[in-house]
Amino acid sequence: MTAVRGPHEEAVDAVNASTHVHGRDQRRIDTAVRTVARREAGFVDPNMVRAELTNEHGLVVNPRVLSARYRKLLHHSIIAPAGTTTNLDVAGGNHGKPMRLYEVIDEAWLNVEDGDGQ
């Protein structure tokens, strides 16, 4: 079940989606989360998501947008905590720290057809 959304949340979403960088990053993140969840029977390891979003030059999205997107997916009951793992991100300075694993609990969101997103 998705949380009820008010006009303020819808306005913020519209601005973010229309902003070139944030909108593009959000689409890329959603595509990566879905890719990992589909491959891992509905579970999402942020290390695997980060790998999907990394190329030879590094992370292709703003790390702040990545963190915010996880919070939004949690807030809207699209994903739920499903345990912990160890952060493998050496470049970001969080290597070795614990972090959450997630499970996608919104089947409709998981089954959305992804666009290019790149």
Describe the protein in words.
The chain has five helices and five strands, in the order H-H-E-H-E-E-H-E-E-H. The protein is an alpha+beta fold. The protein has a single domain (14-109), classed as Arc Repressor Mutant, subunit A, CATH 1.10.10. A hairpin with a 2-residue loop joins strand 2 (54-55) and strand 3 (58-59). The longest helix has 20 residues, at 20-39. The protein is globular, with a radius of gyration of 14 Å. The model has no long low-confidence stretch (mean pLDDT 87).
List the helices and strands and how they pair.
Elements: H1 7-18, H2 20-39, E1 43-44, H3 46-52, E2 54-55, E3 58-59, H4 63-75, E4 79-86, E5 98-104, H5 107-110
Antiparallel strand pairs: 1-5, 2-3, 4-5
Helix pairs in contact: 2-3
